[in-house]
Amino acid sequence: MSKLLRLSKYCQSWANDFTKINIYLKSFLENSYLQIHHIGSTSIPSMMAKPIIDIDIEYTHNFKIIKYLLEDNNYLFEGDKGISNRYSFKYLKNDLPQHHLYVIKSGSESLINHLSLKRILLNNPLYRNQYSNLKKQLINNNNVDRELYTNSKTDLIIKLLLEEKTMKTIIFAGGCFWGVEAYFKQLNGVIETEAGYINGVGETTYEKVCNLSGHAEAVIIKYDNEVISLKKLLDHFFNIIDPTSVNKQGNDVGIQYRTGIYNYTFDQLPFIRSYFSIRQKEYRRPIAIELATNLPFYKAEEAHQDYLDKNQSGYCHIDLSSHKDIK
Asked: Tens digits of per-residue pLDDT, 64-82?
């Protein structure tokens, strides 16, 4: 008899469980793989999830070596289960947290979809709630049929992945988010902006952020890559910040006003670092922009959305007209 499906609130120990499994895998896989990814709902703070860690081992051409090493270290090969370039393995001992392990080819549709869905959910608290509620409803209706549970999530997943393909996202922190949002929303090619908080512990509020919760005030930018490129967005970002300043932009001082770029994709990171290297030549002090990805973004209160539209004489540390200087 199969085990009943179960759903749990997000637990911080899931991140620790992944770390433990990751350390074990790295101890014998050595240089045979490209990256080890924590995927699925247990990798996303504030999501409800089945308490089983999902892991993708990304590889390029060493599958036979990886398979041998896994089988030699207590994993049973279970085949591709009908999905090309993705191979399932089952851990046979009880000394590690329960997990699903997949060896998946770099650039394959399955891996792209896994990482894209994670990024979408990290960037959008509304989608996190929607996805969690759907899973809760499905298990309440039927907590036995695993195939039905999996298939019933497909429509929502397809919808989210389609949005990711048609619209790119990046998150910038550049001091007070009122001005940052007002600046970027006026650019041609920027489709949508939203003020919020990132890179602190858990959900938060404006009051807590101002009292040193550790989050940065940030703006998520959804854009059409065929109209405005990542390079052009970075040009505009550098136009409105002092990239060498630590925890200070304009008259605003505090950890929440640090600069940062967040939730970029892995293929965007080398370009961002190259851009920094080129721009560093313009400054005597080192660039101090924080870089981090795979972080949950929390939408700010409604009063802070489109703040300068609602408060035309409100405070802004940015010259909003300076976007015309960027060609």
From this structure: 999 999 999 999 999 998 8
Domain 167-325: homologous superfamily in CATH? Peptide methionine sulphoxide reductase MsrA (3.30.1060.10)
User: What is the per-residue pLDDT across 192-238, written as a single tens digit (0 to 9) for each?
Assistant: 999 999 999 889 999 999 999 999 999 999 999 999 999 999 999 99
The set of catalytic residues is 176
Q: Go through 26-36 and write b for each residue having 16 or more CB atoms within 10 A of its CB, e for each that does not.
A: eeebeebbbeb
Could you tell me how many residues make up the chain? 327
DSSP bridge partners of 171: 220, 262
Closest CA to 149 of 163, 133, 165, 135: 135
Matching residue, tokens 């298990």: 139
Provide CB contacts within 8 A for 213, sequence distance 6+.
197, 200, 201, 204, 256
> Could you give the residue range(s) of every CATH 3.30.460.10 domain in the chain?
13-164
How many Å from the N-terminal Cα to the C-terminal Cα in the chain?
65
Task: Read off the amino acid at residue 295.
Answer: L
Query: pLDDT tens digits, residue range 131-176?
Result: 998 888 887 777 666 677 677 788 889 988 988 888 899 999 999 9
Cα–Cα distance measured from residue 121 to residue 131, given in angstroms and rounded to the nearest whole number: 9
Cβ-based neighbours of 320, under 8 Å, separated by 6 or more? 179, 182, 183, 186, 308
Domain 13-164, CATH: 3.30.460.10
In degrees, rounded to 5, the angle at the alpha carbon of residue 251 between the alpha carbons of residues 246 and 255 is 35
Residues facing 322 on adjacent strands: none
- Start-end ranges of CATH 3.30.1060.10 in the chain? 167-325
Q: Extract the tokens encoding 147.
A: 């195939």
The pTM score is 0.87
